[in-house]
């Protein structure tokens, strides 16, 4: 289940890049995809639990998680609209370092010297990926948006972690995703209204798959895998995602990477392994 989850997460970047290159505008894609996902999660939660309520004390965290998810999706679609999927995949490898830094800023964690060394290695890797992007289909803006995607996803994960300790994944998804979708629709409503929906059937099929697979099914598989093998081993395997995603992009979109990007990816991966430590159950990936 965990390997299927990692493969689906990894495919998401390539699928999104392809869809944006073949007819869909970035915000229109986000509005349609997250609208569909929000409706599905609402249905799942209502059938499974028959209620959606959260305690008043948790409303601030719910709003914060929705805010980060909104920012994440805006960054995500525009990053992939302007930059190669392989470049964004490598940059997303720095997400654990961003999450730890946000936890430190909020007073949730104390970091060891080992962590600071791992963070420096990871961010050096991001720097090399950014420098090497000049030789591929990428822009400086796209690289910056890729960094913003990693940082906002880390913020979302930090905000949602306490909620996951008190509520089921389906209930949190059914509350947070619709709130985030309202913000996405408000931001991209005009683009969605002007979108030409007469794209090919193949693009529509990929959009539905990108919603049902990497966004909905992975939530179910991820938490079942966590229950089966524990968060430490599960997260270690999940760290393969950036590299698997880069391979998919290279193979399916005929993208290419420079030597600097490869070196950067190695450094990011080294930083992830160096910083490995026991941690709480991670938030599900909803990209």
What can you see in these coordinates?
By secondary structure, this protein is mainly α. The protein has one domain. The chain contains twelve helices and no strands. Helix 2 crosses helix 9, helix 3 packs antiparallel against helix 7 and helix 6 packs antiparallel against helix 12. The chain is globular, with a radius of gyration of 18 Å. The two termini are 18 Å apart. The mean pLDDT is 82.
List the helices and strands and how they pair.
Blueprint: H1 2-21, H2 26-49, H3 59-82, H4 85-91, H5 95-105, H6 113-132, H7 140-164, H8 169-194, H9 201-229, H10 231-238, H11 241-252, H12 259-274
Helix pairs in contact: 1-4, 1-9, 1-11, 2-3, 2-8, 2-9, 3-7, 3-8, 4-7, 4-11, 5-7, 6-12, 9-10
Keywords:
287 residues; mainly alpha; globular; single chain; 12 helices
H/I helix tally: 12
Percent helix, as a range, is over 70%
Large-scale geometry: globular
Instruction: Count structural domains.
Output: 1
* Alpha-carbon Rg, integer: 18 Å
What's the total count of β strands? 0
In terms of DSSP E residues, the strand content is under 5%
Distance linking N and C termini: 18 Å
Mean pLDDT rating:
82
- Biggest β-sheet strands, sense, barrel: none
Structural class: mainly alpha
